[in-house]
Write the structure tokens for this entry.
Amino acid sequence: MQAARQCNYHPHSAARAMRRGRFGRVACVVMRYGGKGTSHSTYTGYLDGATDELADRGYSAVFEPFHIDVRTKEFLEPPQLFSELAVDGIIGIDATGLVPDHVDERLAEMGSPVVWVNREPKPGVVCVNADEYGAARMLTRYVIEQGHRRIGYIGFVADHYAARDRYRGVLDELTEADLDTSALHLARSKWTYPGIARTVLVRIPRPTAAICYNRTVYDGALHVLAHEGARMPDDVALTYFASPWEVQYRSSFLTPMMEIPEILMAKRAVDILSELMAGGLPPDHATPIPGRLITTDTTVPQDGNLESKR
């Protein structure tokens, strides 16, 4: 080691790869629905968790964007990864969870182990997901325990487990508590976010609390409340499903949140990928990872009667 320092010697990664037959690199495949410059903020937590865990295990991460046409689901340009195999494994990260079949087929042809995070479950595909159903029930139960009896939900119609499970969790928890479910709304994504929120918040009687699918929907709900002259949380208490960075840098401490376990999901994906790269067998089922409830000390109308407060 002393001689290496004196000679300013550094290991040659390419030579090591040729001798060992391993590259010490893992590709983080990032699905992007659109051309170059397309950005999806939901990647942050997954990438943070994956790169930290890979570094701890001595791997470097290579980011490979897969640009997909929104309409045809085909590649807008051939990915570099398919033309040159220079990684030991692949972690797939997708904003919507809807991965075209031809992507799975091409990745399988490469022969490297592949683990996905946050995608629609599919037979033969190893994937780590969040327990969205359990998280939705936990968040709804908390809102009920705060005294709310008129509770709305603002979400989307989408072929993805998160969209379905969040809605089902809210619906089942309200049904089990024998509460009204008429203020649960699922919109098509082509709607504007304030337009989606108006369907739930501009009604008589208005809900005293509303659960939003994500931060963007929450912002739209705030816009509607401001336009209607209503206050949050005094008139309507809002809550939403949040990424870790949104929890860390949240500007309002009046809003309870359900933190999506993006970092934990990515770390678990690296665990599974490491086992596969070492010759292990893929798991039959990856247990969904629970979310974390971020509570507040906000006061709410205990009787759920806004008219009496006025």
Summary: The mean pLDDT is 86. The first helix runs from residue 2 to 6. Residues 132-260 form a domain with the Rossmann fold fold (CATH 3.40.50.2300). The two ends are 77 Å apart (CA to CA).
